[in-house]
From TrEMBL:
Species this chain originates from: Pedobacter flavus
Domain of life: Bacteria
Keywords: Heme, Iron, Metal-binding, Oxidoreductase, Periplasm, Peroxidase, Signal
Name of the protein this chain belongs to: Cytochrome-c peroxidase
Matching Gene3D superfamilies: Cytochrome c-like domain
Pfam family, one: CCP_MauG
Locations listed in the record: Periplasm
Length: 348
């Protein structure tokens, strides 16, 4: 063997080793390793001691999430309105489209980072993640089904009897185990690998561009009071001055019947805005620029308007065109391609 052949073999060997290492890393990213808190995130709110995430429980939860039998006529799944490529929203629809193409009244919120949420839905009417799936399953405009029917359909399938047995030690499908399984899947929908996250964790020598950094400073001065880092929501409910829509959605008032909660809606996370348009609780703004212009010039000085939006000569947040441009550049550092392409979360 001459030196040329030896060199070729060495290069080929290094290439094969490199490929195997790369494949290993990819497999590790897309293989179940349980819930891991990102280093730059706070401690979760969800109590994992009451519902430990296991491989079998997660697999069951994912299967249920994409299962159309949760709906009355077996056509709509959770994944129909919460699409992974759209950060688990129903991209392009102002309000949710459910069974028989019925229209809801609110925009489908993203399913991400729910381990840090204390209340759910735009009005906060559900106080615990394990209870949340009851709402879409039983709502007329969404799945229009009831739990006894759902359980009967699933119990008739050997697949689910086996999966419940593996996850919870019994083939019997109970409300508790059904809800916990769905929670196990949703809790694993963690978005924490955006450019912003890499900058905060000092990973891969990542840094903001000059434009992004300027936008970050604008964000901290004008937006962070409600959209606090690193989740980019404080989980509160606020009236942000939107003129009431045609259905006159009263927001948090529908859950509390407290007059001071009228037209208050949950502060959404600003993560993954590239994938989640349209925006606001009723999807009234098709673009991020529309949202920014609302705060700049369209905030209505209505009863219950959040005090943070009523501090100046006129309600809202003054934003120049340059500020809007720079702010947009920063907000797009919150987009997480790893999250929307994670095969572990995808329908099989």
């Amino acid at each position: 063997m001459n030196r040329k052949h030896l060199t070729v073999l060495v290069i080929l060997g290094l290439f094969i080793i490199s490929c195997k290492k790369s494949d290993f890393l990819i497999d590790r990213i897309e293989t179940f390793i349980g819930f891991k808190k990102p280093d730059n995130f706070p401690e979760p709110v969800y109590d994992f001691t009451l519902n430990k995430i296991t491989n079998a429980g997660f697999d069951l939860g994912k299967s249920l999430f994409y299962e159309v039998r949760l709906s009355r006529n077996n056509t709509i799944s959770c994944g129909s309105c919460h699409i992974q490529s759209s950060a688990f929203t129903q991209h392009g629809h102002d309000v949710s489209h459910g069974i028989d193409d019925r229209l809801g009244t609110r925009n489908s919120p993203p399913i991400m980072n729910l381990a840090w949420s204390k209340a759910f839905n735009w009005d906060g009417g559900v106080p615990h993640l394990d209870l949340q799936p009851i709402v879409p399953i039983t709502t007329h405009e969404e799945m229009d089904e009831n739990l006894p029917n759902v359980f009967a359909k699933l119990q008739a399938m050997p697949k689910y009897r086996s999966m419940f047995k593996a996850a919870f030690g019994t083939e019997e499908i109970t409300t508790s185990n059904f809800m916990k399984a769905l929670s196990q899947f949703m809790l694993m929908c963690v978005s924490s690998n955006s450019k912003y996250d890499k900058v905060m964790r000092n990973e891969e020598n990542t840094s903001f561009t000059e434009e992004e950094l300027e936008g970050y400073n604008i964000f901290k001065g004008k937006c962070a009071s409600c959209h606090s880092e690193p989740l980019f929501t404080d989980g509160s409910f606020r009236n942000n001055g939107l003129v009431p829509n045609a259905v006159n959605d009263l927001g948090q008032y529908t859950a509390t019947l407290n007059e001071t909660d009228k037209y208050k809606f949950k502060v959404p996370s600003l993560r993954n805005l590239r994938y989640t348009a349209p925006f606001m609780h009723d999807g009234r703004f098709l673009t991020l620029n529309g949202v920014l212009e609302h705060y700049n010039s369209e905030v209505s000085n209505m009863v219950n308007l959040d005090p943070l939006l009523n501090k100046g000569a006129k309600p809202g947040i003054t934003l120049s065109e340059r500020e809007k441009s720079r702010l947009t550049a920063f907000l797009f550092t919150l987009n997480d391609e790893t999250f929307i392409n994670n095969k572990l979360l995808a329908e099989q």
